[in-house]
Automatic annotation (TrEMBL):
Residues 1-26 form the signal peptide. This is Urease accessory protein UreJ. Pfam families: HupE_UreJ. The chain crosses the membrane at residues 50-71, 83-112, 118-135, 147-172, 178-195. Keywords: Membrane, Signal, Transmembrane, Transmembrane helix. It comes from Pseudorhodoferax aquiterrae.
Amino acid sequence: MPASARTVLRILACLLLPLIALPALAHSTEHLGGGFAAGFMHPLLGPDHVVAMVAVGLWGAFLGAPALWVLPVVFPLVMAMGGVLGVLGIPVPGVELGIALSAVLLGGMVAFAVRPPLWVAGLLVAVFAVFHGHAHGTELPHESSPLVYSLGFVIATGLLHLAGIGFGALVRSPAGRVAVRAAGGAISVVGLFFLQGAM
C-alpha cells in the first residue's frame, strides 16, 4: 500500500475511533431546548447517525452519477417520513437494530465495492432512513415545533451526506479509491460496536 494511502487511513482512524466512545452523548439536545437548533444538532451528536450518513454519501460518490445525488436525496426524504411515524407514536420494530445495521451494511457496501442496480441501492438506503427518521421523531422535544425540528435534522443529515461525498471524491485516484473503501470498512466496524449495543 502506498505511503499516501497509509497516511489517509491513519487520519481516518483518528477521526472515526472517538465515535465509539460517544454513546453517552448520542442524541442529547436537552440543553438546546427545542426548534431548529435541537433538530440540527440531534443527528450530529449521535455517532451512529453520523457514520451511517457519511456512508450514504461515500457510497453515492463511489457509485457515481446518478447514485451520487439520488441516494443523498432519497435518504432525507424517507427519513422525514420515518420522523412523522415517530412523532405520531406509530411503532417501528427494531429501530436501534436497524440504525446499527445501517452503518454495518452501508459501510460494507463501500468497503467491498458493491455496485447494485440503482433501485436496489435506493431501496436499501430508504429502508434504513425509516429507522433513523423514527428515532429522531420519537426524541422530538415536547416544546418543539415538529416541522422546524425536522427541518433541522434533515439539513444536518444532508450536510453529513455532503461530507461523505466530499471524501468519496477521492475515488478518482488509485490511492484515493483505497482510502474510500477503507473508510467504508472503518464505518462498518464502528457499526458492529453499535450493533452489539443494540442486541
